[in-house]
Specification:
Blueprint lengths: L1 H30 L4 E3 L5 E3 L17 E5 L2 E5 L4 E5 L7 E5 L9 E4 L5 E5 L5 E5 L7 E6 L9 E3 L2 E3 L1
Antiparallel strand pairs: 1-2, 3-4, 4-5, 5-6, 7-8, 8-9, 9-10, 11-12
Length: 160
């Protein structure tokens, strides 16, 4: 027991020492990167704005699923994914929507039309046409006054 306690204490000291070393060395290393400069106060800042573009997204929080026939409509973080699930052991990703501005919170598939309704948090309600499962496309949107967390379908009415 004493040897275990000593090893744990030694490990904590090593981690603490490594953390302190990183905190001390990081500003020095960053100051040599292109585009990074020191202000008069000694703070590090970027020399100019950096433009970034989201080029893709994989996976994410799966908070909502709807199944209709051989297709499953799954919110995978900010997009809605369409999966072919006729073989339950091997679902196949067919396509996905463009990224919503928030994570998909709820999904309902219309039993009588090729539409899937998506509650996308701060993005509100989105209507997706899944007539071509490999190419789901947004056909309508309703930006709600508050966050859209869940949906219910009653005939031809969608409740957010």
């Amino acid at each position: 027991m004493a040897a275990l306690a000593m090893t744990s204490l030694s490990a904590r000291r090593v981690v603490w020492g490594a953390t302190m070393l990183c905190l001390l060395v990081a500003p020095l290393v960053l100051s040599f990167l292109p585009g990074v400069r020191r202000s008069e106060a000694g703070n590090l800042s970027l020399a100019s704005e950096v433009e970034m573009e989201i080029v893709g997204q994989v996976g994410g929080a799966a908070r909502a699923v709807a199944v209709k026939g051989e297709y499953a409509y799954v919110g995978l973080g900010p997009p809605l994914a369409v999966l072919e699930v006729s073989n339950h052991a091997r679902p196949l990703l067919l396509g996905q929507t463009a990224l919503f501005s928030d994570v998909v919170q709820g999904v309902v598939a219309s039993p009588s039309s090729p539409h899937v309704y998506v509650a996308a948090g701060s993005d509100g309600l989105d209507v997706i046409d899944v007539g071509v499962p490999a190419e789901p496309v947004e056909v309508a949107a309703c930006h709600t006054a508050r966050w859209a967390f869940g949906l219910a379908l009653d005939g031809s009415h969608v409740c957010v």
